[in-house]
User: Fold these one by one.
Assistant:
Number 1:
Amino acid sequence: MIMTSISSTVGSLAMREFYLVLLVLLGCSYSSVGQVPDETGTSLGSIDGQIGIDLLKALQALEAKLQANEEELERLKKKESYKIAFAASLGSDGTYGPYSMDTNLVYSNVFSNTGNAYNSSTGIFTAPIKGLYHFSFSGINSPPTSMFLLLYKNEKLIISCYTNPSDDRFYTASNSVSLNLEVGDQVYMRLGSDTSVFNNVNSHTTFLGHLLYANLE
């Protein structure tokens, strides 16, 4: 819908430029005969002057409309760039971990990646514009090991979720947060040391995020 509006606006701009050139040419033509007398010997200067005023008003009106269309085109382009969202799960079936240290998780099974801000090779989301973003994640432990999932922003731990099973059953956990991000800020997930997480075709372990609104100040 937005791209259709942009195409329509571009077409409208081209048409107005055509009319603008046409009016300028007409103005030049009228100016060239401004001092030619009519059949009664009366100069056409007064008529030409009125035509000039009318042309000037028409040109000013067209210029105003042209400026408005250009501003609308820029607004639509920016609105298109504000569409940022992703959703992914761990790619391979099986157990991840346990590892001897906290380890970055790469969610390579991408369901959607509008705006291409999420990198499925590194598992890192990089904010393309300043604004408020919402992130959520979930996971399931691999019995009998605990699961400890951590969400980071620029190497700083923000939130986490944890399961500590007392038996050989699967337990799930999840968490979410809204974050103010600057351009270039990175958000990603880690698996805590000495814990594990499980995933299969049902995509139990996921990482999602989207832009709530942009901050243009």
Note: The longest strand covers residues 131-140.
Number 2:
Amino acid sequence: MKKKRIERKLSTMLLSKTNNVLNDDWKQKIKKVLPMRFQVILKELLVQSSVEPRLSAIKLKLRELGLEMSAQAELEKIIEETKSAKEKYLARRELALWYANQRNPDSAIKSLYYLSNMKQYKYHKEDILHIEDILIETENYLLLKETMKGKQLLDSILPKLKLLDLFFMRANFEDEIEQKIFWINKGLAVKNLLPISIDAFSGKPPYDCIKSDIVNEKVDLERSKKFKVSIIVPVYNAEDTIETALISLINQTWSNIEIIVVDDCSIDNTSTKLKKIKLIDKRIKTITTNKNSGAYVARNEGIKVATGDFITCNDSDDWSHPQKIETQITNFLLNPGIIANTSQQIRATSDLCFYRRGNFRLLIPNVSSLMFRRKIVMEKLGYLDSVRFAADSEFIRRIKVVFGKDSVLNLESGPLSFQRQSSSSLTGNEAFGYHGFFMGARKEYFESQIYFHKTAPVKKLYYEYPMRKRPFKVPRPLLEKGNSVVKLEKILIFDFRVFDRDIFDLIAMLSSGDSCRIGLIQYYKYDFNPTTFINEQIRNCLNNSECEFLVYGQKVFCESLYILGSDLLQHRQRYVPKVYSDEVYILERGSAVIENQVYENSRYFLNYNKITTLSLEKFKKNKEVENGD
């Protein structure tokens, strides 16, 4: 056995050293000169090394790109045809997760089907993949109300596998609040966090009754005096949740704090609630914005008046564990070279049920918990981007660009925040929320900021507040509140990741004369590399023109819409805006795709009165005549 382990280790080392250096011919030559036993092991490893990149590509198509039907079909084909046990397992696993994320009984049954067929794959019982599979399986049982199956599975493995997520999942199977708290505290103990209890006499939902005894756990005053933390809490219409959030901050073990509550022009009784809570603790300060502008403008107002050595934020509906601030500050004291850190969170309902967010784990990073050194960060980077969502992630990336990729630590802290999950939560928003991956407006914002960070001089990474001029373009939903209805004259649909001279010609033709704004809709080609971003020349053109990207969740009305090549619509894509157009022009450069297929894949997002197919060449000539060229 020992000899076999050594042989496999040597083969793995050889593969890791050669895999990214040698081409396939050289790999085969090396295999031929190895002893037969090594050849068998190396062949197996070579197969496995090609599996995960292929599955990762399909996963991106399935999730981020919204090419769901085609990606599912490709995964099914792998399951049916591949000889690799690992590839078959990973394909089934991805489908099991996708169906589990639909969160309905029929999909839960399908998810369990794929999970049951995965059990023949041989993985170590302590393997994180195995644990994550159990989380998905038990969550399916929960949705199907098969509680006994879920309990039995978790109870059979918890004595051996003490992963924090499993304890919180086990709490979901309890109806009695005392039993829920028992399992929650088992999970908190994994990270040596203080236990919690419930104030049974408050008459509120369990989430709003959480308490923890910190009398004997307060950090020594002399120690905490050295560093003050400013906690900024942006608030909008939070009359039902703000008390829970603020009481959890008042009861932090690190006492040298100021709590800056920024009311973003609430129209409910939030201000009345704040006046009462302020009387409890003199460390609470309140300010009000001039107009409702979103959480990140509110945070910037708080940053402007903060006096702490460190700054962090807390959402107005989230409960924070009493050791949250202490844990993050202690990390700074142990690592004086870091600029910022984040802690972890778990999503919880008012009844203290815990849910995943798109991926396999319950425990996830909490970007809102970002704590940073105030003086140096404000000096180099200024303020948060003044958008309505996703600015904390952009801020973290700017910190890494300026101070280095290791300047931000993501702490494996355990759940120091319970992120309140409700139907009205932004992160639960179907179109603009974050579901564990980037899509729609968030994906476009992510790609646009990455391009700006890469091409702009460092001094341009300082964002002023108030922001008089945007550093880069973003989709309208990041800037405008309310419904996402857009009216434009012309829209162009293409896969803008591809460099294509005709696209630049079309943009120039369509925008000439009347200087109208042109809407661009990104439609992904299935066989193109899914990791590729929007072409940089297109991105540069976008930032210097009247063009704008239209995204999933918007409703768009236009006079005319242009599709460059009917082959673009061969694969149905989920994350596109709803479009209503008087006329649609399909501009062909070669033979057209079967019309029925094009119509079928366009009708679910595109409504029109008239559709015309033209050769691109003829269209260009007509436009030249029209523009007087």
Note: The chain has a mean pLDDT of 88.
